[in-house]
Amino acid sequence: MLKLEGINKIFNEGTPDEKIALDNINLHLSPGDFVTVIGSNGAGKSTMMNMISGALTPDFGVVTIDGKEVTKLPEYKRSQFIGRVFQDPMAGTAPSMTIEENLAIAYSRNAKRGLRRGVNSKRREFFRSSLEKLGLGLENRFNAKVGLLSGGERQALSLLMATFTKPAILLLDEHTAALDPSRAELITRLTKQLVEEGNLTTLMVTHNMQQAIDLGNRLIMMDKGQIILSIDERKKQQLSIPDLMAEFENIRGEKMNSDRALLG
Amino acid sequence: MFTAMFGSVEQGIIYAIMALGVYLTFRVLDFPDLTVDGSFVTGAATAAMMIVLGYNPILATLAALVAGFIAGCMTGLLHTKGKINPLLSGILMMIALYSINLRIMGLSDENAVVKPNIPLMSSDSIFSQFQSLWGNIGIDQALTSFLKNTLGFQTAPSTWGTILIVLILTLIIKSIVDWFLKTEVGLAIRATGDNKRMIRSFSANTDGLIVLGLGVSNALVALSGALIAQYSKFADANMGIGMIVIGLASVIIGEAIFGTKTIFRTTLAVVAGAIIYRIIYAVALQIDWLDTSDMKLITAIIVILALVIPQLVEKRREKIRKEKRRIQRLEQQRELTQGGNHLA
């Protein structure tokens, strides 16, 4: 479903600030795979997400989605097949527009936008039933401006908007990191539910190791622009945090230096 | 006085179309577009030129609409493809249009290449065409006699047809803008002004949407210019100076008085704002020591006040809120310590 082959990216090449962000990344997701990505700050997780979404283009390498090469395709064209939720709850929705208008924008993701009404009665019915799944009562606040919602509510709405058109790939970029623990748990639960319902091929970056272990069927660990560890479905079921720490020490010959990675 | 006011309202309703255009860029797209000063004249020049050449005024007005659309798209392309700052894109286009407008007006005269103005005193216009239909109905005579005989007015407007036709036109344009902003494309344009990153992640080409939004906005501005030229019976290369500020003043005044709860309400507020601005203008002109040329200064001051006062009001409110909370906290503390004394 998603293939990254030999992806390289260097920032500020030829200057003293040169940084190898991605170093020969190869990754293959089969349909229905849910891969969690962990790694310390600066490991290249977000850069990799941006390569897939098209916000950045690789210096070398090929990105393939659903059998189509998309390496050179601009972000807005690629996002037909890609649903995204960002870390910042403000980033995924338009604050001065109403809930139903935001949903209408997401709904037109994979069709050409024309002069049809964005919200009609048929769509409203679909929006209502989709919102009900969130269990937050948002279906009764159709005409509320999204800017008035709490961070958790906005993130739940972003998640719904990213998933309800069944994109080929779902990218979650630390989408629970900016929320308080109870809200983060709610979003984690909704993520699991929506991904399972849609059988979505998903890539999720997280700082929270427990979350990385609990969710998904595969796990990869990144460090210094490389994928240093890839754990498959069979092994992931018995995985624990100490296992991960030990693996890291094994590979890198040093202790994992991120408290944040542990505590999330 | 009454006829002067009446004329102001008529003009205000025509300028409201321009204000709706400014609303589309300034508020909806969050793009401060200065093309307006040039595209307003482009509309006036195109319509006047075609009318002088003998084309039907309706066709001439539609051509002005198209010319404005193209001008707006050019500004959009400068910004999105040329990566030029929004303000500068608009200024560049405004300057370029100044020369282009002189050329457009030059087309009306086979002995000249450029012309600084076109008089339309004896020409046909949308208004004269409508008048020839309206004048026969007899509503004017009835209303005039009602005003003079029943209400005791000294003077009455020469016709009610103009205000009717401009009101109908402006309300149609307002409804089209309302409808457009609710279509799929319209929603995407609004989201572009609100959160570019979000709308890109939903497969919308923000560059294309900005170009389209600027095109539609300047089409409305040019339409307004074409109507003003026919209303005041001339087009002039300098008639657009300060137009963007007048548009902004209308948007800001309207929003401040009537609110922005829904799109329907906001566009209505913008239309009303444009009319109110014209009335303020007319009243200011009645003051003896003010000259017509002071009006630009007054407009600038209105916009500055409208932008600054809300900030000051908010600051003051915040201060009062803070003070209230502090007193509450102090009282709570006192109660707590009193409780403690009682226990001790």
From TrEMBL, chain A:
SUPFAM superfamilies associated with the record: P-loop containing nucleoside triphosphate hydrolases (SSF52540)
Domain named ABC transporter: residues: 2-249
Subcellular location(s) of the protein: Cell membrane
UniProt superkingdom: Bacteria
Keywords assigned by UniProt, alphabetized: ATP-binding, Cell membrane, Membrane, Nucleotide-binding, Transport
Membrane topology label: Peripheral membrane protein
Predominant subcellular localization, coarse grouping: membrane
A single GO molecular function term of this UniProt record: ATP hydrolysis activity
GO cellular component entries: plasma membrane
Pfam family, one: ABC_tran
Name of the protein: ABC transporter ATP-binding protein
UniProtKB/TrEMBL annotation, chain B:
Record's GO cellular component terms: plasma membrane
CDD domains in alphabetical order: TM_PBP1_branched-chain-AA_like
Topological type in the membrane: Multi-pass membrane protein
GO molecular function, one term: transmembrane transporter activity
Database matches in Pfam families: BPD_transp_2 (PF02653)
InterPro entries (UniProt xref): ABC_transp_permease
Transmembrane domains' residue ranges: 12-29, 49-72, 84-104, 160-181, 202-228, 240-259, 266-285, 297-313
Record bears the keyword Coiled coil: yes
Principal place of residence: membrane
UniProt subcellular location: Cell membrane
Keywords: Cell membrane, Coiled coil, Membrane, Transmembrane, Transmembrane helix
UniProt feature coiled coil, ranges: 313-340
Domain of life where this protein originates: Bacteria
Protein name stated in the entry: ABC transporter permease
Organism: Lysinibacillus halotolerans
